[in-house]
Specification:
Blueprint (H helix, E strand, L loop, with lengths): L6 H4 L2 H4 L6 E2 L10 H4 L17 H8 L10 E4 L1 H13 L5 E6 L4 H9 L2 E6 L10 H7 L4 E7 L11 H13 L3 E5 L21 E6 L12 E4 L3 H14 L5 H11 L2 H25 L3 E2 L8 E2 L2 E2 L7 H11 L2 E2 L1 E2 L10 E4 L5 H18 L2
Parallel strand pairs: 1-12, 3-4, 3-5, 5-6, 6-7
Antiparallel strand pairs: 2-8, 7-8, 9-11, 10-14, 13-14
Length: 369
């Protein structure tokens, strides 16, 4: 496989240095939590190899989110990235046809590229509200297609696939005997009604998620994939065993104890997100240099500097990063023009978010031609 580092990883704040950033608006998750926030007890753990599928009690909690799902339909992995890697490498070989939404979280594109797949990008457009065109999708998917790769709520735009549209996508993949790889990392952060867990709708759907984004727990590397296809799950398990054998008992126990208090945690998380979303929405409404498609879920949005605004983009990012100490996810992280930027509004406090947003305004003003 031909591995290449992507800009989103090379330029990530953890690689650049958190201590060098004053206003970090590049994060795509809720605020990082501390163990003390969760009241976790680990003294009882015996640090042996664990169940290769993952902690049974944790898998039962995750399966309970989807109608008809069983704990054996759940495979725990070290983060959603590992789940995406396992699913792609099991399902795909060089030359296989895959249809993937674009823009997208980098791993959803880089892994099939590393395998050498024929990657057919289903381009989402700002002018269309970043909406998935299901008629175009139906035209692109053929009996030769191996995989359709989508995310909802979408990263980086925050647009949500409705339940009706999700069910139509499932019909499309079933009719063509291929699979849907559905990245649902932000599913529980949708602002409206939650769509069903994709894997609960068909054995042809593989749902991917984690505790990194919605719960602010990226440090425990806890993700999972869910699929009702028993034979395929056996292959996924084999891949996990050959790469990891089993997961970290420490990570799985922290995840289990956290999800036992899921209702209280989500209530707190949603309240902070709502506060910050109001702040960024008010800011967007008051300024004239940027435009956006308002997100419908998650903690990220993908606004752009207006196309009719003459701007030195190099000067803008120089001022933003080095004069104002503010970090965003520039468009090239997602193979887009740098007029676009992913802004994460869930990681910081409201005051820091507003300070960073105001830095964006000042940096734009200093870079106008």
């Amino acid at each position: 496989m031909n591995y290449k580092r992507s800009p989103i990883e090379i330029e990530s704040p953890e690689q650049y240095g958190y201590d060098k950033i004053r206003y970090n608006l590049s994060e795509s998750s809720f605020t990082d939590m501390r163990l003390s926030d969760l009241d976790i007890s680990l003294d009882h753990l015996v640090l042996a190899y664990g169940d290769h599928f993952g902690k049974p009690e944790l898998r039962a909690l995750l399966a309970a989110d989807g109608a008809g799902l069983h704990p054996d339909d759940v495979l725990l992995t070290p983060g959603a990235a590992a789940a995406l890697f396992v699913a792609n490498t099991v399902l795909l070989k060089p030359g296989d046809h895959i249809v993937a939404a674009f823009p997208n979280y980098a791993t959803n594109l880089t892994t099939p590229r590393a395998i050498g797949c024929n990657l057919d990008l289903l381009t989402l457009r700002f002018e269309d509200g970043w909406r998935l065109d299901l008629d175009v999708l139906a035209q692109r998917v053929t009996p030769k297609t191996k995989l359709v790769s989508l995310t909802t709520p979408h990263n980086p735009t925050g647009v949500v696939l409705s339940e009706a549209d999700l069910r139509r996508v499932v019909e499309i993949v079933e009719a063509n005997d291929c699979y849907l790889l559905l990245d649902e990392t932000y599913r529980e952060m949708a602002f409206g009604p939650l769509t069903p867990v994709g894997a609960s709708l068909s054995p042809r759907v593989i749902s991917i998620s984690s505790l990194s984004k919605s719960y602010g727990l990226p440090g425990i590397r806890m993700g999972w994939l869910i699929c009702q296809d028993t034979a395929l799950m056996e292959q996924f398990l084999a891949a996990k065993e050959q790469i990891f054998i089993s997961g970290s008992l420490v990570d799985e126990e922290i995840a289990f104890q956290a999800l036992q208090r899921k209702s209280a945690l989500l209530a707190m998380i949603r309240a902070q997100i709502a506060t910050n979303f109001t702040a960024i929405s008010t800011w967007m409404a008051a300024q004239t240099e940027l435009e956006w498609v308002q997100p419908q879920g998650g903690v990220v949005c993908f606004p752009r500097i207006r196309l009719d605004l003459a701007l030195d983009l190099d000067r803008f990012y120089q001022a933003l990063n080095h004069e104002h100490g503010t970090w965003v996810g520039p468009g090239h992280w997602f193979e887009h023009d740098r007029r676009y930027m992913r802004i994460g509004y869930g990681w910081t406090s409201r005051d820091i978010l507003l300070a960073g947003l105001n830095s964006i305004t000042r940096a734009i003003h200093s870079a106008k031609l």
